[in-house]
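We append the chain.
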Amino acid sequence: MKFLINFKLLAKFQLSLFFFILLVSGCSSAYDSAPIEPPQENNQWISVQGVIPSHVSANIYPQYRSSICKKPRAMSDGTIGTTENINKYKISVQPDPNGRYQGKIALHGGSRCDWKLYKIVFFTLPNEINLYKDRLPERYQQIDFDSVGRSVEVSVIQSEKTVYNRPPISLVANYYPDFVFYLPEETKSFKTLFLRPTSDKKKYTIDYNINAHGNLGTIMFSPTVDMLYTTYTINSGSKIERTDKTTFYYPNGDMVGGEYHLRPYKFYDNK
């Protein structure tokens, strides 16, 4: 068998490949990055502290951006432009035997990118899922569940004003467990323990003056999970056959179908 080679097409491909390599090579220098390396001297700090219960784990993600180290961005006209680069790191909270922890997060992330803190994400995840299963009917306690956590964010914004003796910001991070799964169990792999918020999500902000020194403020992060208020959601049937059904089960014994969302936390207290 013979293969015919279109040399014109091959030449175009090689030329395109050359420009692609040139573009990528240029990106490595024009869109480079550097690790977050906060200087210990002449920096500004945000303190974080609180209590972590034994049945949850908590992670904190300080997020930084840089207008010096940029990254590529596809523009609407097909060209390649640039935009601010984003970087972050993970803090796995390790509380003491009483559940307490404290630490601080740097405003200036350092390095040649001159990273600046712009957001802090506080993440709560169920720990020891078996502890949560006690509120499920016994016939469902043998299911092997995955888990999904919840987050709350604090925006960090530069301001012209200087705030002294700022009161601590107490984050509302109160949740309850909700198990979601399909029946019959063998038909689907989706078996998940969610943490649902007990109230509407709030927005939090710390503003700072670039000329201020030392501590910019304190964030109190003490997540809680109401283990006594455990809900579970059972899905069954087939969407293709239009037999799908969702039923919500609540701690007061209510069993509700035909609704699209869980009812508000402790809704029955308002009846």
In short: The helical segments are 7-30. The chain has one domain: 44-73+83-262. The chain is about 10% helix and 45% strand.
